[in-house]
Amino acid sequence: MEAAWAFILSASSFLFLIFLFKLQRSSKKNLPPSPPSLPIIGHLLLIKEPVHRTLQSLSDRYGPVLYLSFGSWPVVVVSSPSAVEECFTRNDVVLANRPRMLAGDIMAYGSTSIGTAPYGPHWRNLRRLTALEILSPHRLAGSLYVRLEEVRLLVRTLYEAAASARGDGFARVEMRSRLQELSFNIIMRMISGKRYFGAAVDAGDAEVARRFKEVINEEFELSGTDPGDFMPALRKVVDFKGRERRMVDVAKRADVILQGMIDEFRSRRKMSDSGREVESKTMIDSMLSEGYSDDIIKGHIMSMVSAGTDTSAVTIEWAMSLLLNHPDIMKKALVELDDIVGQDRLVDEADIHKLPCLRNIINEAFRLFPAGPLLVPHEASEDCTVGGFDVPQGTMILVNAWAIQRDPKVWDDPTSFKPQRYEGLEDDHAYRLLPFGMGRRSCPGAGLANRVVSLTLAALIHCFEWERVNEEPVDLSEGTGLTMPKREPLEAMCKARECMIANVLGQL
C-alpha cells in the first residue's frame, strides 16, 4: 500500500511538472477563455452531471468557444452555430479524428468500430460500407417491409391492450419498453435477419435479446468519461470505481453474444446455399462477403445497435411526451394525417414528405431533447483555429448541441415546444439543429432514424386517442445516460380511434 502511494505521489509530481511545461507553452498561444484550474486535474472538479448543462453554464460565463483541461487532456467546448460551422467545414478533416478512450479500446475491439476508429483507410472503408451498402437510400427502401411490419406489430399490441380495457376504453400503457423493442427488432432484422422480441419469437432468441440489452445498457453506462483517460499515469495503480474491470467483463459477455450471432448466421447461410430459400441480404452478409474479420463485424454490430436502438426510441418517447402536454398540436397533426392518409389504411413512408406538421414536431423534439446532447468527441489531428482561437493538436473537441439548440441568441423562446417555428424555414437551420452531428463523422444512420421515428410517431397519432394518466402535465425531467432519456418512462392512456378500427386496426 505504501509503495502504491509513493508511486501516486511520484506520478503526481511528474504530472505537475508536465502541467507547468504545458502552461508555459500554452501562454504563447491564443487559447480560448478558460476558468481557473487546479494543477494536475485541471477542471475535472467543475464537471458535474448532467455534463451538457454544466458545460452550458461555463460557456454562458466564458464564451461559446471554451478551453478546459481534463487532467492532461486539453478540451475545447463549442457552443455556437458559427463555431460549429467552422469546425465541420474548414476544419472538417483536421477534426475528423476520435480521441482514443479506454472504453473504445476495451469494448470496441481496440477502437476499430466506426464510431471509435481514427480517421484513415479503415474508417473510410467502414463508412463506405455503411453509407453505400447497409444504410443507402436503395437498401433502406428494400428494408421498408421490416419497418412496416414492426410498426404494425406495435400498433396491434396497443390495440389489444385498449380493446381489453373496461369503462371508457382507455388503457394505461407504458411506452418506453415497447419503443425500445420496436427499434431493437428493426435494427437486428437489418443486421441479422431475425426478430428478437415479440410473441412469436423463440425463447432462446428472447433470452439472447435480454442479455444483449443488459450488455448495451452497461456499455452506455461505462462509455462516459473515465478519470483514467485523463490521468493515465494513475490508471496502472488505481482502477477508478472498478470501471476497467467492469469494462473487461462487459466486453467478454458482449463478445460471446455477438460471436454467437455471426456463427448462427454462417450456419443459416450454409443451409440456404444447400437449396433453401435465400433471405434478403443483411449487414452481416455484406460484411462477410467483403472479407471483414469477425472482430470488425462484431464491433460494427455493436455500433449499429447502440446508435440505432435507444436513440430512436428515446426521440419518439420525448415527442409523445411533448404532444401529451400540448394536445392542440397533436390534434393538428391528426387532422393532417386524416387529410393526407385517410382513415382506411396505415401511414406509409411515402406519405411522410407530405406531412409537414409531423416533420416539424419531430424537429422540435430533436431540438429540445437531443438523443446526443453532446456530439461524439472529435480530436484535432493538427493545430487549427476555431472562432479566432488556437486549438492545439491533440485537443478534444466537444460540441454542446443541447446548448446551441436552447440558446436564446439562436432560437426565439428556446425552451418552449413550438413546432410552427420551422414553417417556411425549409432547411435553414443547419448548424443550429444537430441531431446527427455534422461533417464527415456525422451519423450515417440519419436516414434510417428519420424513417423509424416518422413512421412510428405518425402511426401512434393516427390510430389512437391519447391522454395523460392524470391532470398533471407529463414530467419532462431528464434522466442520466448518453442518450438523455426521460427520468421516468412514459405512461399514457391509449384508446383506439373508432374510425380506424374496422378498416385498419381490426385487420392487423
Number of helices: 20
Shape, please?
A: globular
Cα Rg: 24 Å
Whole-number total of structural domains: 1
Mind telling me which CATH architecture this is? Orthogonal Bundle
The amount of beta strand, in percent, is: 5-15%
Mean pLDDT: 89
Question: Tell me about the biggest sheet?
Answer: 4 strands, mixed
CATH class category label: Mainly Alpha
Q: Order of strands across the widest beta sheet? A: 1-2-7-4
The CATH superfamily is Cytochrome P450
Overall description:
This protein has 508 residues and is of the alpha+beta class. It has a single domain (31-507), classed as Cytochrome p450, CATH 1.10.630. Helix content is 51%, strand content 7%. It has a 4-stranded mixed β-sheet with strand order 1-2-7-4, covered by helices on one side. A 3-stranded antiparallel β-sheet has the order 3-9-8. A two-stranded antiparallel sheet has the order 5-6. Helix 7 packs parallel to helix 19 (446-463) and helix 15 (310-325) packs across helix 17 (356-368). The N and C termini lie far apart (66 Å). The model is unreliable at 1-26 and 275-279 (pLDDT under 50).
Task: Summarize the model shown.
The protein has 508 residues and is an alpha+beta fold. It has helices spanning 2-26, 51-62, 81-88, 102-107, 121-134, 137-142, 144-163, 176-192, 203-222, 227-230, 232-235, 243-273, 283-289, 294-308, 310-325, 327-340, 356-368, 401-405, 446-463, 498-501; strands at residues 65-70, 73-78, 171-174, 378-379, 384-386, 389-391, 396-399, 464-467, 491-496.
